[in-house]
Design brief:
With 320 residues, this protein is of the alpha+beta class. It has 6 helices and 4 strands. It has a 4-stranded antiparallel β-sheet with strand order 1-2-3-4. The protein is rod-shaped and about 180 Å long.
C-alpha cells in the first residue's frame, strides 16, 4: 500500500485512532504490525504467503517497529526486510540494527506481552466474525492473557486444576461413604447369619447330648437286667443244689427241679446272649459317640473361624 517515501506513524501514550475512507490503507497498518513483529500471516485472515504483503510491482519491502522497553529500559527497534525470490520469499530480521532470527524476534515480542493470537488484544478486521463466535469462557481466557502478565491466567488455570482435584477427591469420598454403607450392611447380614449359626450349633450340641444320655440310659438298663439275670442264675443254682440234696428222698421232685434248673440255665444263657448283643450295641453307640464328639470339635473349629471373620469385619468397619 505504502511506497517511497516511507510512511512513519508515531502513536501517542493514550488511545490512537486511524481514520480514512475505504482503500486508504488502514488495514495495511494492522498487517504491518503483525508481519513486522513476527506474527503469523494466518492470524490476519488474508494471504498466507509473506510475499503477498509486498507492494504490487515491487520486489522488496520492509517494516520497522519501535517497541517501548518500559520505564528505565531502552526501546527496541525491530526491522523486518522481505524480498521475493523464485522459490517464494526470504526475510531478514534485526533488533536495534543487530541481525537476529525470526524466533528471537518472536521471543522478544512475547516477553513484552504482545499476543497476536489473542483476539482481545489484536483483532484484525477479517477476524471480527471469529471474535463474535467466542463464548464466555474463551473471552475470559483471552482477557486474562491480554491484561497484565501471565500470572493471572496461570492462577486461573491452577484454580481450575484444584477444582478438578476437589471434584476427584469428593467423588472418592462419596465412593468411600457408599462402600462404608455397603460394608456395614454386609456386616449386619453376617452378624445375623452368625447368630443363626450359633443358635443352630447350640441346638445340635443339645441334641448330641440327649443322644448320649439316651445311650447311657440304655446301658444302665442292660446292666440292671444283667444283674437280675445273674441273681436268677444264682437262685437257680441254689435250687439245683437243694434238689440234689433231696434226690435221695424223692427222684421225681429231683427231676422236676432239674428241669427247672435247666430252664433257669437256658434263661440265663439267653439273657447272657442278650447281654452280649447289648454289649455290641453299646460298642456301636460308643463309636457313634466318638464320631459325634469329633463332629462337635470340627463344628467348634468352624465356629471359631466364623468368630474370627466377624472380628476382622468389625475391625475393617472401625478402620473405615
Amino acid at each position: 500500500t505504502y511506497g517511497e517515501p516511507a510512511v512513519t506513524i508515531k502513536p501517542g501514550a493514550r488511545l490512537n485512532l486511524v481514520l480514512g475512507p475505504n482503500g486508504t490503507g488502514k488495514s495495511s497498518l494492522v498487517c504491518a504490525l503483525c508481519v513486522g513483529l513476527g506474527g503469523s500471516t494466518k492470524l490476519l485472515g488474508r494471504a498466507d504467503n509473506l510475499k503477498d504483503y509486498i507492494r504490487r510491482g515491487c520486489d522488496r519491502g520492509w517494516v520497522e517497529t519501535t517497541l517501548s522497553g518500559g520505564p528505565g529500559r531502552p526501546d527496541f527497534v525491530i526491522r523486518c526486510e522481505m524480498a521475493k525470490t523464485d522459490s517464494g520469499y526470504k526475510s531478514d530480521w534485526r533488533i536495534n540494527r543487530a541481525s537476529k532470527s525470526k524466533k528471537e524476534v518472536q521471543d522478544l515480542v512475547k516477553s513484552l506481552n504482545t499476543q497476536f493470537d489473542n483476539l482481545c488484544q489484536f483483532l484484525p478486521q477479517d477476524k471480527v466474525v471469529e471474535f463474535a463466535r467466542m463464548d464466555q469462557y474463551e473471552l475470559l481466557v483471552a482477557t486474562e492473557k491480554a491484561v497484565g502478565d501471565a500470572s493471572l491466567y496461570n492462577t486461573h488455570q491452577a484454580l481450575n486444576q484444584k477444582r478438578e482435584l476437589v471434584k476427584v477427591q469428593q467423588n472418592a469420598a462419596d465412593a468411600s461413604a457408599r462402600r462404608h454403607e455397603q460394608l456395614v450392611a454386609e456386616n449386619q447380614k453376617l452378624e445375623r447369619d452368625y447368630e443363626r449359626f450359633r443358635r443352630r450349633r447350640s441346638l445340635q450340641e443339645r441334641v448330641a447330648l440327649m443322644k448320649k444320655k439316651y445311650v447311657w440310659m440304655g446301658v444302665q438298663e442292660l446292666q440292671d437286667k444283667a444283674k437280675a439275670a445273674e441273681q436268677e442264675a444264682k437262685q437257680a443254682q441254689q435250687a439245683v443244689t437243694a434238689a440234689q440234696a433231696e434226690a435221695s428222698h424223692d427222684e421225681r421232685p429231683l427231676k422236676q427241679r432239674q428241669q427247672d434248673a435247666d430252664k433257669a440255665k437256658k434263661a440265663a444263657a439267653d439273657l447272657q446272649q442278650a447281654v452280649r448283643a447289648k454289649d455290641k450295641e453299646i460298642k456301636k453307640a460308643a463309636e457313634k459317640l466318638t464320631q459325634e464328639e469329633d463332629a462337635v470339635r470340627e463344628a467348634r473349629t468352624k465356629l471359631q473361624g466364623l468368630q474370627k471373620e466377624k472380628d476382622d469385619g468389625e475391625a475393617t468397619k472401625d478402620k473405615l
